[in-house]
Amino acid sequence: MSSVITTTGLTKRYGRRTALSDCTLHVPAGHVVGLVGPNGAGKSTLLQLTCGLLTPTAGTIEVLGETPHTGSPRIGFVAQDTPVYGNLTIAEHLRFGAHLNPGWDQALAEGRIAELGLDPAQRAGKLSGGQRAQLALTLAIAKRPELLLLDEPVAALDPLARREFLQGLMAYAAEHGTSVVMSSHLVADLERVCDHLIVLVNSRVRVDGDVEELLGTHHRLTGPRRDPSTLGPGRHVVQASHTDVQSTLVVRSTAPVDDPTWASDRLDLEDLVLAYMTEAGAHGRDRVLEKR
Ligand SMILES: Nc1ncnc2c1ncn2[C@@H]1O[C@H](COP(=O)(O)OP(=O)(O)OP(=O)(O)O)[C@@H](O)[C@H]1O
User: Which residue ranges does the record assign to the ABC transporter domain (predicted)?
Assistant: First the structure.
């Protein structure tokens, strides 16, 4: 499977602060990828490295087969603060986009502005936060990029606008074969649209995989209290909590857990992400339980 983003040992430090550490990833082409993690985990840093706005401190990154550089017409990037020019009208933004981008699709841009009910003569500075986000997305997709990078694109949108935005994005990506990487804290939204998930915690990649496969291999086990190390080989305990009498584990395992004293449930994506975030917060390290 071809990759749109390949990183090896990718590390970014700002002075003494490490924003991204030893990150090795293969983001498959033609997918909608969710990028999640707590505040400060390194999501924006990874997206900015991907579009060439930042350069690595160590390690390598290749995007669409080349070293990323700013201004690439092959990459559309919508930053977290959805930058637009307050004094320019929407129509002027579109003209600016057409001037800068050889593959600019004016009909797509105008059609989207009309669908959103926005007046092309309106100055961007007078738009609401959600409307600015929609304008920024329109500018990014009208470039007809091969890869679309969106940093918390739905944060400013109301629930209905969010659903419409995500449905529109999926339809667009499927129709044009565009790869999308989208960061968000709204994991339930991502579960509806993403088929690949990356979880960053404490500057490190904790999960990188196909959503279906992740949901199929993670389980919540509940049973009488015991030491999780009795689970056997090949089981990665992501999160463990105990009362006096009961243990609850979130486990990653390819083989079924055949001990009948455990009750096993599937997780949704939000539970899965929270398990990785909670465990990292509590212990800050992996706990892989292998029987020797
Ligand atoms: N320009 C900068 N100078 C110094 N430190 C920075 C800079 N940008 C980010 N950082 C630090 O790098 C770390 C990762 O930040 P980043 O913005 O990538 O996280 P994030 O996962 O996108 O967070 P959020 O969900 O809050 O947007 C944080 O500790 C942040 O304080």
Answer: 5-227
